[in-house]
Design goal:
- It is a single chain.
- The protein is mainly beta.
- Helices cover 11% and strands 30% of the residues.
- It has eight helices and 30 strands.
- Helix 2 runs parallel beside helix 3.
- The longest helix has 14 residues, at 380-393.
- It starts with 5 loop residues before the first strand and ends in an 8-residue tail after the last strand.
């Protein structure tokens, strides 16, 4: 019985590890309702009014970092606000980058932002803050427990002010940073003051290394990383780091982002952030199922920490194969009180749970099937996502598929004429995650690991009969040798079916009508039978005779659902 499922995975993700920073502990609970449109996500649609500075004439703002006048590659900085005469629940501070970003009003751009659907509060801010936090997250602020006397008459204090301290988790996104204090909440913002610029100690540092497989032989691996420097760097690997490979360097610009003739996209305008340079080097002369040590960078920009990774088993072999699969992960703030543009509240706990399995050496490969970072046109969020997955993606192949939040945009060639990518149109995704695709903007591929043949498609590109992707799917599945790889797993971001009240329901009739007959022809089957509304991921284990799949709850680490397919002894490969 050489049958499997259409693994269109939409599993989600949360926390339960004492190794996390204390500020992360309540992240899921605090951000559980932040995925939908929130006041902060609509900040650019708000009128910028004048703050009544006469009510708070003593306000000062100080940013405290570990290296005083600069920022490390990762740290929690403290923002201290002093001199507030009248504390308000609407006072907040924001992290702005680059430091010369304009957060004044932009009434001349009023007509460019129609696609948001929020037309009630224009004009708007010119640039979108990276993250923000209300001063009331300091429990002493509103009650003014931290007090200073600004004016005395004799022994009496006649003017007293209040202080607050809040924290931000900061990673190296290369451009310098300012912190700004606002009043009026997120719905009626007014700017009080801004700090001095803070640069990163090493904006060119090599960071966020992540691995991917190139082919089914498992004798080579691609390593990609980000740096602020465009000059080629190296990966050094092998027993003594004696093998060296030089990186190819790529990047993208605002001009590569999508928009329409009348409407600017976030990626093209207020959500833009310079991505730096993406370095990619291929490590060769590797052996399957083998552990190697490596580092990347250069003498001029610095080197990453020494890291180990393990190659997957070669395709067609009889090895056991353990893998993880999921979709729609995104990221969440590691400072639990702050908010960002797009938050997937369970992402932290899912990464922590998967990291535990990876560190125990129990996983050979990871498959992230669409909706990767949810940057959706706010480019700095790619850096936060790459930082989040680094403990996993730097240790084994992190294979991906494209989703609507990476590719879809009006009049851009995507199947669905939506604005889900925020104007990215797949460009950042394909630059950061260089899979063995069929070409530029053709993000479909196949790869074999041990006894599984993975066919990975794009649900966002033309999949109709006789289209290039359809013909490739047909050819790829026809080429599978079931005596070498008895299991065929067909992956894509959008599901053909979804379980609602336990009943399988078609999601897109065109997708089902056009594509489903093809995998069924090659005995690939999927039925949506169980709906588990919890954060988690799929854990798979394959041998030549048996395939088992489990849905793991990331909070409890318990298996919520599972099934097993056993190859019958008299079955014949097709």
């Amino acid at each position: 019985m050489f049958k499997l499922l259409f693994l269109l995975i939409s599993l989600f993700f949360p926390y339960s590890s004492s190794s996390l920073h204390p500020l992360v502990v309540d992240s899921e609970k605090l951000h559980l309702n932040s995925t939908a449109i929130s006041d902060f996500r609509l900040l650019n649609r708000r009128s910028l009014i004048s703050c009544p500075i006469n009510l708070n004439p003593y306000i000062k703002l100080e940013v405290i970092s570990k290296s005083k006048n600069s920022l490390l590659d990762e740290e929690f900085i403290n923002v201290v606000v002093t001199g507030v005469s009248i504390p308000s629940i609407d006072h907040w501070v924001a992290l702005i980058t680059p430091s010369n970003a304009n957060v004044d009003g932009c009434p001349e751009n009023k007509a460019l932002y129609l696609q948001t659907g929020d037309l009630s509060s224009l004009p708007l801010l010119c640039h979108y803050p990276v993250k923000a936090v209300y001063l009331r997250s300091d429990p002493d602020y509103l009650r003014c427990k931290k007090r200073e006397c600004k004016k005395r008459v004799g022994n009496n204090c006649v003017i007293q002010t209040c202080n607050a301290t809040v924290s931000f988790h900061v990673i190296n996104f290369r451009t310098d940073v300012e912190v700004a204090m606002f009043g009026g909440g997120f719905t009626s913002p007014c700017l009080y003051l801004r700090s001095h610029p803070l640069p990163f100690l090493n904006p060119n540092a090599p960071l966020y290394g992540h691995l991917s497989s190139l082919d089914s032989t498992a004798t080579s691996m691609r390593l990609s990383w980000v740096s602020g420097n465009k000059n080629p760097q190296q990966v050094q690997y092998g027993k003594d780091g004696t093998i060296k490979k030089t990186s190819l360097v790529s990047t993208f610009s605002q001009n590569d982002m999508c928009d329409t003739p009348l409407i600017q996209s976030p990626a093209k305008d207020f959500g833009w952030h310079d991505p730096g340079f993406i370095h990619s080097a291929v490590m060769t002369q590797l052996q399957p199922s083998t552990t190697y040590s490596y580092r990347y960078g250069s003498d001029s920009v610095g080197w990453s920490n020494q890291t180990t990774f393990r190659t997957p088993p070669a395709g067609g072999g009889g090895n056991d194969f353990h893998f993880i699969a999921f979709g729609d992960m995104g990221k969440a703030p590691l400072d639990s009180s702050s908010v960002e543009h797009y938050i997937q509240p369970g992402s932290i706990s899912v990464v922590e749970a998967m990291k535990e399995e990876v560190e125990r050496g129990e996983i050979d490969g990871v498959f992230h099937i669409g909706d990767i970072s949810y940057a959706t046109g706010f480019l700095v969020e790619w850096d936060f996502f790459l930082h989040l997955i680094n403990p996993i993606a730097s240790r084994l192949p992190y294979m991906t598929a494209i989703g609507n939040h990476e590719r879809d945009y009006v009049k851009s060639g995507s199947v669905y004429s939506l604005t889900d990518s925020g104007g990215e149109c797949g460009v950042p995704y394909e630059t950061y995650f260089q899979m063995p695709n069929n070409g530029k903007d053709k993000p479909w591929y196949s790869i074999e690991m041990a006894s599984i043949h993975f066919t990975i498609i794009s649900t966002e590109h033309n999949f109709s009969i006789n289209s290039p992707q359809y013909e490739w799917m047909k050819s790829d599945m026809a080429s599978v040798n079931r005596s070498r790889t008895p299991w065929l797993i067909f992956m894509g971001h959008r599901p053909m079916y979804s379980s609602i009240r336990g009943l399988p329901t078609s999601v897109d009739h065109n997708f089902v009508d056009e594509v489903e007959p093809l995998p069924l022809q090659y005995k690939v089957e999927r039925w949506s039978l169980v709906r588990v509304k919890k954060f988690g991921y799929l854990r798979g284990h394959a041998t030549m005779e048996e395939l088992s799949l489990e849905m793991v709850n990331a909070d409890t680490r318990e298996v919520e659902d599972s099934f097993k397919i056993i190859k019958s002894s008299n079955s014949t490969p097709n």
